[in-house]
Design a protein that fits this description.
The chain has one domain: Glycoside hydrolase/deacetylase (TIM Barrel, Alpha-Beta Barrel). Helix content is about 40%, strand content about 15%. Strands 4-3-2-1-6-5 form a six-stranded parallel sheet. The protein has nine helices and six strands; from the N terminus they run βαβαβαβααβαβααα. The longest helix is centred in the middle third of the chain and has 23 residues. The protein is globular, with a radius of gyration of 17 Å. The protein is α/β, with parallel strands linked by helices.
């Protein structure tokens, strides 16, 4: 039986900046992304354009830096997760389809197991930041992709992950299993305070150029379809 090869393209940071949101909606409308991770902690959200795209929507959890460690820190994180899940449903009219975290806050070693267990109880797939986090999540019963790809900084020529190069060039296949490609499409907003600003336009242009590529399109799934 052929090995399964699937790709989930997830746009992060809806709710960070109106200019970023515009780019995410543009990508989702073009079917250049499969899922959009929504931040609900930053104030009023204009969700109508996002809902109109029909994209799968997940919670992009935000946790403050410097929270207390140990049991107190875990309980605080779980309470914050509960608040943001409730806010997500209140604003978007539905529970999220999956969970991930801004700057991978959900993967902090002292929190990963507790958050993974809570997600598993709710039936939410979770993004795994690396192999160690993946093992923790699966031990907690949470569904997660087999790998995460995508860039974390604005280094030149880094928009296309090396794992996708052979597919785009018609020289190879996706890696085996379920791959999540984390992207940050948007239009630049120097007032946002984000260290990943100019690269968002590059991400958007790349996604729009690839969205109809048959070799990628045929492998793409949502979190619910791939991990539900």
């Amino acid at each position: 039986m052929p090995e399964r090869r699937a790709l989930i393209i997830t746009a992060d940071d809806y709710g960070y900046s109106p200019r970023y949101d515009e780019g995410i909606v543009e990508a989702a409308t073009a079917r250049a992304v499969d899922s959009v991770s929504v931040m609900v902690k930053r104030g009023p959200l204009d969700v109508a354009p996002l809902l109109a795209t029909g994209a799968e929507l997940g919670l992009h959890l935000e946790l403050a830096e410097g929270e207390p460690g140990g049991a107190d820190g875990r309980e605080a994180a779980l309470r914050e997760l509960e608040r943001q899940l409730e806010a997500f449903e209140a604003v978007l009219g539905r529970p999220p389809a999956y969970l991930d975290g801004h700057r991978h806050c959900h993967a902090r070693p002292e929190l990963a197991e507790a958050l993974g267990r809570e997600a598993a109880e709710r039936g939410l797939p979770v993004r795994s930041a690396d192999a160690d986090h993946r093992r923790v999540l699966r031990s907690a019963g949470a569904a997660t992709p087999d790998r995460l790809i995508g860039r974390y900084s604005e280094e030149p020529d880094g928009a296309l992950p090396v794992e996708l190069g052979p597919v785009v060039e018609g020289k190879g296949d996706l890696p085996g299993g379920i791959t999540e490609w984390m992207v940050h499409p948007g239009h630049p907003d120097p007032e946002s305070g984000s260290g990943y600003d100019q690269a968002r336009e590059e991400d958007l242009d790349l996604l729009l150029s690839l969205c109809l590529l048959p070799a990628l399109k045929s492998a793409r799934l949502t979190h619910a379809a791939a991990l539900g």
